[in-house]
Specification:
The complex is a heterodimer. Chain A is mainly alpha-helical. In chain A, about 80% of the residues lie in helices and about 0% in strands. Chain A contains eleven helices and no strands. In chain A, helix 3 crosses helix 4 and helix 7 crosses helix 8. In chain B, about 35% of the residues lie in helices and about 25% in strands. Chain B has nine helices and ten strands. In chain B, the strands form two sheets. A six-stranded mixed sheet of chain B has the order 6-7-8-3-9-10, sandwiched between helices. In chain B, strands 2-1-4-5 form a four-stranded antiparallel sheet, with helices on one face. The longest helix of chain B is centred in the middle third of the chain and has 18 residues. The chains are: A mainly alpha, B alpha/beta. The interface between A and B is medium-sized, with 23 and 26 residues.
Chain lengths: ~260, ~260
C-alpha cells in the first residue's frame, strides 16, 4: 500500500500545477490554434461546469452504476473462485492453463462478440468490464490464500475446528489484505473498460457516449473536460480504497514492516 | 489418560518415528526430549490429530484418536505464526471457546480470566504485533488455558524467547497447570528444561525416533529456578538425560534418581 504523506502530496500538486501553467502559457502565446485545441483554463472551466450539467450527469450516473455493478459482480465471482483455487491445489492446477490463456486476451477485443450476445447495453458493458477486472482479484485472492500461514490453520484445527471454520476464520481474514489490493486494481480497470465499451459500442447514456457526441460536434473542450473528470474519479476511488486498506489492515502492514 | 501404542510415521521412505510406546497418567507433566530430527514434532502432530500416523494408535481416555480430539490444546513454538494478528489478545484467547458453545459475553469473561492468570489482564485489547515475544507466548498459553483442555501439548513452547523470559514461562506453566490439574506433554530439545519442568522425562533416539529412556523426576516441589537447578539430584539427572540424548549408554546411579534433597 503506497503511503501518502503531506510532503509528497504537496510536491505532486506543485508538479501538476506547474505543467498546467506551462501549457496555459504556451497556448496563450500561440503554440497551437486554440480554436481547435482549447486552453487549459477553458477545459478546466468546462470540467467544472459539467458537474452541474444535467445532460452530463445523466451519463455520469449511468457509467457509475455500470461500474459499481461490474465491480460487485467481479468480487462475487473472483473472491469465492480465488478462495477455492487457493485452498484446493488440484483445482488450481487444473484451471491454471485456462487462466493463463484467457488473462492476456484484451477485454476490448471481446466487445464485438459481446455486442452480438447481449441486446441490453448495460449487461454488455458489465460483461466487458468484469472480464478485465476479474483477473487481479482472482490472482490476488489465490496468492493471498496461499500466503496464509499453515501453522495458523493448524492451530485452529488442533482446537477441533473443521475445514469450513478454518476457511472462514483464518484463511479469509488472512488473505483479506491481498483481496483488497486486487479489488483496488480491479476498480481502476473497470473504470477504463466501462468508458471504453461506451466509446466503442455506443448507446444512449454513459460518459463514453457523451464524449463521442461531443466529438461529433467538434467540442474538444467538452471531450477533454469529461475525460479529466473520469481521471479524477479514478484518483478519488483509489485514494479512498488505499485509506480503507490502511485502516482495516494495520496488522498486515505492521507484520510486513516487522519482517523486512 | 494418554496411551501411544506402537506409534509410527513415515514420510515417503523417511521414517520419522518408529513404534513409540508411552503411557501418560492424568495430571502428569511429561517432557519429551531428543536430538534434533528425532520426530518430536511428528509425534505431537499425531497426538493432536493434525497428521494421521502411518502405524500404531493414539488412545485418549481409552478411545482411539481420529481427527483432532476434544479436550486437547496445543501451544506451538512459533507464537507469532500461531496467534492471529487481526485479532486482539482477548479475541485470540476467546476464539477456541466457540467450540465450547459459549456466547460472546462468557467467552470474553473466560478469556479475560485466562489472560489474568498469565499476567496480561492489562493487555487484553492489544494486538499480537504490539507485544514482545514473551507476551505473545503468554497469550498462546492463556488461549490453551481458557479452553480448559484435559491434555495440553506444548511443542518447544519456550524455544523462541530469551533466557529470562523462558524461565518465567516455565514457572508460569508449572503453576497454572498444577492449578488446573492439567496433563501436559511438553516437547523440547533442551535437556535442562525437560528435567526442570517434567515429572517424567522421556528420551527419544535420533530418527527414526523411538523411546530410549523413561526417567521419573523426583525433585522436591515447588521447583525454583535457582535452588532446583543446583540440587545434586538435578545435576545427576540432567547428565543422565544428556547422555541418553547423545546416544551414550546410561550410567545407572545405584541410588536412583534425585532421591536426595538439600
Amino acid at each position: 500500500m503506497p503511503k501518502v504523506n503531506g510532503a509528497s502530496l504537496l510536491r505532486g500538486l506543485i508538479g501538476t500545477a506547474g505543467l498546467l501553467v506551462v501549457l496555459e502559457a504556451a497556448g496563450r502565446l500561440g503554440a497551437w490554434d486554440t480554436e481547435r485545441l482549447p486552453l487549459v483554463s477553458t477545459v478546466l472551466l468546462r470540467a467544472g461546469e459539467l458537474l452541474t450539467d444535467p445532460e452530463f450527469l445523466v451519463s455520469a450516473r449511468s457509467s457509475l452504476t455500470t461500474w459499481a455493478l461490474a465491480l460487485l459482480v467481479t468480487i462475487a465471482i473472483a473472491v469465492p473462485a480465488g478462495l477455492l483455487l487457493g485452498m484446493v491445489k488440484p483445482a488450481e492446477l487444473a484451471v491454471r492453463p485456462l487462466i493463463e490463456f484467457l488473462r492476456p486476451i484484451p477485454s476490448v477485443a471481446l466487445i464485438p462478440l459481446v455486442i452480438l450476445l447481449y441486446s441490453e447495453t448495460t449487461h454488455m458493458r458489465i460483461t466487458v468490464a468484469v472480464y478485465a477486472a476479474l483477473w487481479p482479484v482472482l490472482i490476488n485472492t489465490i496468492y493471498g490464500v496461499r500466503d496464509v500461514d499453515p501453522l495458523a490453520k493448524e492451530t485452529l484445527r488442533s482446537f477441533g475446528f473443521g475445514p469450513g471454520s478454518v476457511a472462514y476464520r483464518v484463511v479469509l481474514p488472512g488473505a483479506a489484505p491481498f483481496i483488497a489490493t486486487g479489488i483496488r486494481l480491479a476498480a481502476s480497470v473497470a473504470i477504463v473498460l466501462v468508458v471504453t465499451s461506451e466509446l466503442i459500442a455506443g448507446g444512449i447514456e454513459g460518459i463514453g457516449v457523451y464524449i463521442t457526441i461531443a466529438a461529433s460536434g467538434n467540442r474538444l473542450d467538452l471531450m477533454i473536460g469529461a475525460t479529466i473528470l473520469v481521471g479524477l474519479f479514478g484518483i478519488l476511488v483509489n485514494a479512498l480504497l488505499v485509506a480503507g486498506e490502511n485502516r482495516l489492515f494495520r496488522w498486515h502492514r505492521a507484520r510486513a514492516g516487522a519482517a523486512t | 489418560m494418554l496411551e501411544l501404542v506402537d506409534l509410527s510415521h513415515t514420510y515417503g521412505s523417511y521414517r520419522a518415528i518408529d513404534r513409540v510406546n508411552l503411557k501418560v497418567a492424568q495430571g502428569e507433566v511429561v517432557c519429551i526430549v531428543g536430538p534434533s530430527g528425532c520426530g518430536k514434532s511428528t509425534l505431537l502432530r499425531s497426538i493432536a490429530g493434525l497428521i494421521k500416523p502411518t502405524g500404531g494408535t493414539v488412545l485418549l481416555d481409552g478411545k482411539p484418536v481420529d481427527g483432532s480430539p476434544e479436550n486437547l490444546a496445543v501451544v506451538f513454538q512459533d507464537y507469532s505464526r500461531s496467534l492471529y494478528p487481526w485479532m486482539s489478545a482477548l479475541a485470540n484467547v476467546g476464539l477456541p471457546l466457540r467450540r465450547r458453545g459459549l456466547d460472546k459475553k462468557r467467552r470474553d469473561a473466560a478469556a479475560l480470566a485466562a489472560l489474568e492468570q498469565v499476567g496480561l489482564a492489562g493487555a487484553a485489547a492489544k494486538f499480537p504485533w504490539e507485544m514482545s515475544g514473551g507476551m505473545q507466548q503468554r497469550v498462546s498459553i492463556a488461549r490453551a488455558l481458557a479452553y480448559q483442555p484435559k491434555l495440553l501439548l506444548m511443542d518447544e513452547p519456550f524455544g523462541s524467547v530469551d533466557a529470562q523470559t523462558r524461565e518465567e514461562l516455565e514457572d508460569l506453566t508449572l503453576r497454572v497447570c498444577a492449578h488446573h490439574g492439567m496433563t501436559i506433554l511438553l516437547i523440547t530439545h533442551d535437556v535442562d528444561e525437560s528435567v526442570y519442568v517434567g515429572d517424567r522425562v522421556v528420551v527419544l533416539s535420533k530418527a527414526p525416533g523411538t523411546v530410549v529412556g523413561d526417567l521419573p523426576v523426583q525433585l522436591p516441589g515447588p521447583r525454583d529456578q535457582i535452588h532446583t537447578r543446583e540440587l545434586d539430584a538435578f545435576v545427576r539427572l540432567r547428565a543422565e538425560v544428556g547422555r541418553l540424548v547423545r546416544g551414550m549408554t546410561p550410567q545407572r546411579n545405584p541410588h536412583g534418581y534425585g532421591l536426595e534433597t538439600r
